[in-house]
Design goal:
Helices cover 34% and strands 22% of the residues. By secondary structure, it is an alpha/beta fold. The strands form six sheets. Strands 1, 2, 3, 15, 18, 19, 20 and 21 form an eight-stranded mixed sheet that branches. α16 links the parallel β19 and β20. The two termini are 44 Å apart. It comes from Catonella massiliensis.
């Protein structure tokens, strides 16, 4: 069969055996039905007015209350006119106004965490024109700045000993709203809930307590699940924030489908929302599909996706993307599984977004070991003044973000027999990361058959794995991951 896989800014053709299985999120197995557009306002407002585990907004605020509304950056959630952020924030604002809160007492905060600060154009796309122009000119929309120590507060450590340094605007507010998405994430199961505050409005030292090898290389991290040590750290950090603040976050989270449409909306306390939302989230995200384990998984990597332009070309970021597929799909991989992935791999690091990655890459080549060995340089990079200045003032990623990438990137090497990168324009970058290179999918599969695969390998093709909201594939007879603490 002939298939097209993502490659650079276009596609690359592949001729694969006719018995190749294909999975496309939302198509091969349909998502649960989404809420019709004409009912979105009604369903969202009902959720907001009937919160789980806490009083409604009208009973929690009054005239003079200071309010923060924290919303995710452009990486998640969609930008369509009916996106969850655009609808829910407008409705929550009206609830606040009706309760006597003044507009000048409301601050909207983009929870970019260690991601690059979103530009005004990007925030306008995320919030929509009406919200954007209502608040931007009075300085009431800001990005979180994890290096702005005048507006951070050090809360000490959780019972597990994890540092918690958080946004002071949120800490000082009388009422804090988290707008989130219950969407499958290889880092800790789901976005939204306590993950939102634990990663989006904290400091690199807080994030270094969970986005590191000692957590990400535990046996409970792969395959992705809802009860890993990472997830428990998110929950403990979030609940510790609440204890120190003396208030609970008001969450408004939407379970999203493949096209970022709302399947279900849940509001209220973070723990209550997670308990409710993860039931539907599991139905959409953990898909019992495979009837056999796969010896080969074939997919393609565009140049621009998820974190930005260059994600699919610079060697450290593409290793993270490869590893994300391991984390999501380990349940259906054979013990000797081989990945075959197209990537231009042209040496484009995009130093405007990731100014520190060329230096990290050179260190990796000098060390000659594994990505894990670079972790000891985390604090050196995280305190580099020039890299910090670029994060704060030039829309670059925070330098410690690279270390969550390398911690993840090692997992691809650990859990596969071989990874072939097809179509690399500068194959030396791929080979430096331990990847094999071939010009075509057919050549890569032929070589893998000779060296790693059974005579008749089971092959799975994932033609749109980076341009759709991904799922976590399971064996057909697997049950949903009900062993976590929420689904008893």
């Amino acid at each position: 069969m002939n298939l097209n896989f993502e490659y650079g800014h276009g596609f690359m053709k592949a001729e694969l055996p006719d018995n190749t299985d294909i999975f496309i999120p939302g198509e091969t197995v349909a998502d649960p039905p989404h809420i019709p557009e004409e009912l979105l306002v009604e369903k969202t407002l009902y959720s907001i007015r009937h919160p789980i585990g806490m009083e409604p907004i009208s009973k929690q605020v009054k005239a003079g209350s200071k309010v923060t509304i924290i919303f995710p950056d452009r990486v998640k959630g969609g930008e369509q006119p009916t996106s969850h952020r655009k609808i829910s924030i407008k409705l929550i604002l009206q609830e606040l106004y009706d309760a006597g809160v003044k507009k000048e007492d409301i601050l909207l905060i983009c929870s970019n965490g260690l991601h690059r600060k979103n530009t005004e154009k990007e925030i306008r796309g995320v919030l929509g024109d009406e919200l954007f122009f209502e608040f931007i000119h009075t300085g009431q929309i800001i990005n979180h700045d994890s290096e702005d120590y005048e507006h951070l507060v050090d809360l000490g450590k959780t019972p597990q000993g994890d540092p918690v340094i958080m946004n002071k605007y949120v800490y000082d507010a009388d009422f804090a709203v988290l707008i989130g998405h219950t969407q499958g994430n290889p880092y800790g199961g789901y976005s939204g809930g306590y993950k939102h505050c634990a990663t989006g409005i904290t400091h690199w030292r807080s994030i270094a307590s969970h986005h590191v090898p000692k957590v990400m290389h535990r046996e409970d991290f792969v395959p992705v699940n809802n009860s890993s040590a990472m997830r428990h750290k998110f929950d403990e950090i979030g609940s510790y924030m609440e204890k120190c603040m003396g208030k609970k976050f008001f969450c408004c989270d939407a379970v999203l489908d493949t096209k970022s449409r709302q399947i279900e909306i849940n509001s209220g306390s973070a723990d209550g929302v997670q308990e409710k939302a993860w039931v539907m989230g599991n139905q959409r995200t953990y898909v019992p599909f495979a009837e056999k384990k796969y010896d080969v998984i074939v997919f393609g990597m565009p140049q621009f996706f998820h974190y930005g332009d260059g994600m699919g070309t610079n060697p450290i970021m593409l290793m993270q993307a490869l590893s994300a597929q391991v984390i999501r799909h380990k349940r259906i991989m054979s013990d000797n599984c081989v990945f075959i992935c197209s990537s231009t791999c042209n040496g484009y690091f995009n130093e405007r977004l990731w100014p520190y990655l060329p230096e990290l890459f050179e260190l990796f080549k000098e060390e000659g070991n594994t990505l894990v060995d670079l972790n000891r340089y985390g604090e050196y990079f995280a305190t580099n003044e020039e890299y910090i200045r670029k994060y704060r003032f030039a829309n670059a990623f925070h330098p410690f973000h690279g270390f969550s990438m390398i911690s993840c990137g090692h997992l691809a090497e650990k859990h596969t027999s071989a990874i072939y990168l097809v179509g690399a324009e500068k194959p030396g970058y791929a080979r430096a990361m331990g990847l094999k290179t071939r010009e075509t999918f057919e050549e890569a599969l032929k070589d893998a058959r000779l060296k790693y695969l059974p005579k008749e390998p089971n092959i799975l093709a994932l033609p749109r794995t980076f341009t759709t909201a991904a799922v976590h594939l399971m064996m057909k007879d697997d049950v949903m991951p009900l062993a976590d603490r929420y689904l008893k």
